[in-house]
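Worked Example 4.2. Consider the chain below.
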Amino acid sequence: MSAQSSSTLLVPNVLLPALRGHTSARHRRYRKTVRLGIVGARVGGPFALLIRRQTRLSRGVKDILVTGITATTLLTSVASASAQNIFEALFGRMAPSAGPVPDANFTARDRQQLANPPYRQAWIPPAYRRQVVRYHRKEAPGTILVDTDARYVYYVLPEGKAVRYGAIVGEDAQAWSGVATVGRKEEWPGWTPTANEKRRLGPLPDYVEGGAANPMGARALYLYTNGQDTLYRIHGTNQPGWIGHAISSGCIRLTNEDVIDLYSRVKTGALVVVLGPKQGASRTASAGAP
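Applying the procedure from the previous section yields the following structure tokens:
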């Protein structure tokens, strides 16, 4: 008879008295041992189960070994969970890297262009993710404020609140500040590199069609002063990993998901206030409960 057949026959014979209602002390001890073995196997893994099956070891030695394995496994699990909790407390939960965040303002073209963007989806630090915050300045609702020092764009809401977006801002030598208005808006704009951009960035085409690979991204707000195009824009990006940095030629860039959201809120003619370096108030806004 095989070992498998033997074990199959032995287990029912041992448990038979208990099934009939005659639970002896020996059988109660046996069932307790079986239960402990199952728990140990679940918690301690295959090593605990292997120890339970050893016939040459005394029950006391088996219990000590299984207890040690179980304790080690539990402590390892707790340590791993604690490390993950600490990381999430400091940096936030890691966002999934595949695909953009769903957005109610997406058009059919947005979904098609952003389903598999030709750039790597970046993990955005929690501080630079879109959120509603308390707003402490006096700009009227509907105004856009750019805080270049903090790398934030605010869309002012009523009742002392604002939507805050993380941004890429201009390099020190390229930073622009002042007051403008939204002269026009465009979805999936084309890009015409300026002469300055061609000098700084090397050979560039004269024009790039709109799309997810275009540096202008999904939307553009064109900034005007006195009816003239300033050549500065608030637009999307194909480099979301640089949110929170100063690397642009002066334009303000948001993630494509965020610029779509901002575009849906802003009206043509809206006021735009761009605070240059060291011009930001000590507390433009505060995160937390709006």
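The CA atoms of residues 252 and 290 lie 25 Å apart. The chain has two domains: 3-91, 108-286. Compare this with Example 4.1 before moving on.
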